[in-house]
Amino acid sequence: MRTENKLKSLPTVQKALLVSFLIILSIGFFTGLGFVSNTTNATPSGIESQYLGNENEDGAVMEMKFKKSEREMLTIIHTHTMSLALVFGIVGLLVSLTGLPNKFKLFLVIEPFVSVAVTFGGLFVMWLGVNWFSYIVAFSGFLMTITYATSVILILIEMGFSDKIEK
Question: Which residue ranges make up each domain of the chain?
């Protein structure tokens, strides 16, 4: 069941504010993904090296990495879960105001929170020694990214910026 699209009826100034916010938020989000790609090569083995270190690997390594301390892991998990909760809370609120079908909206609103918990909880489990969790971390991070991008694109479409902005 589709619901009323409340975003399309917003005044032009509020739409401009939301578009500006979503653009800057997305620049920050995708810059962070660039950092993740740079430090982990966006692979499960790269994730393991980043958090568990690579000093025990045979052969030459391009960059020596050491296992993160408990304090470092807690800082990473704390800062990312807190900031991503705000990001996905705001994006989820905007998704909830679209005219998309309710079940799809519910997925777009809830999934990022599940992915944040699985991604950062998974990093900690992996750090504790369950190395295969790097695959779960990689998958949940990928799903989180796809959901974020889909949500932002749909919000922008739902605001009607393809139509002429009324004066």
Answer: 12-158
